[in-house]
Design brief:
Four Helix Bundle (Hemerythrin (Met), subunit A); mainly alpha; about 180 residues
């Protein structure tokens, strides 16, 4: 299972996704958006192709991402996206109880996805077969329940930032996008 080709490819893309976000500080918005629009669909596709697996152990998996790590990453991403960080989310459960749109933040969504993926990569790299398997199963479950939807919502917001009518970037940056 953990050495299945699709699992190995998911691990590779997941590690690249983490490396990309960790190295994003100070990136130009246009470059960041462009790379995000390429890596996020790939991460989604590789998660979809994972073979079904169930958690075997009953111990809580170790986590890597601390509140501080999460917050530093989120702030770096918010800094890159600046006034283009927020978007309206229509796929929020609370939306059906509200007459106001729900505002989400690309930086927060990416940090949330990062947290799950980085915790997965951290446990996977320990190289213990059972915990590797359980980390994969947990990541897959979180994809189905949580970060998969976050990813596609964020992708929609990033797509709009690059191509949509609503983007108000400087003329120079618009050409770069």
């Amino acid at each position: 299972m953990i050495f299945d080709r699709n699992a190995v490819e998911f691990v590779t893309v997941a590690a690249e996704f983490c490396k990309f976000l960790e190295g994003a500080e100070g990136a130009k918005r246009a470059d960041f958006v462009d790379t995000s629009l390429k890596i996020l669909p790939l991460l989604y596709l590789k998660a979809l192709l994972l073979p079904p697996c169930e958690v075997l152990g009953d111990e809580e998996l170790e986590s890597y991402v601390t509140e501080e790590t999460y917050e530093v990453l989120r702030l770096n991403l918010a800094d890159i996206l600046a006034e283009h960080d927020d978007y309206l989310d229509v796929f929020v459960e609370d939306m059906k109880y509200s007459d106001q749109p729900i505002t989400r933040y690309i930086s927060e969504d990416l940090a949330d996805i990062y947290q799950d993926i980085k915790d997965f990569i951290f446990v996977f790299q320990l190289g213990l077969n059972e915990t590797m398997h359980d980390a994969l199963a947990t990541c897959q479950e979180h994809f189905r329940l949580y970060w998969g939807q976050r990813l596609v919502n964020t992708l929609r917001a990033l797509h709009d930032l690059k191509f949509g009518q609503g983007h108000h970037e400087d003329t120079d940056e618009e050409e770069e996008l």
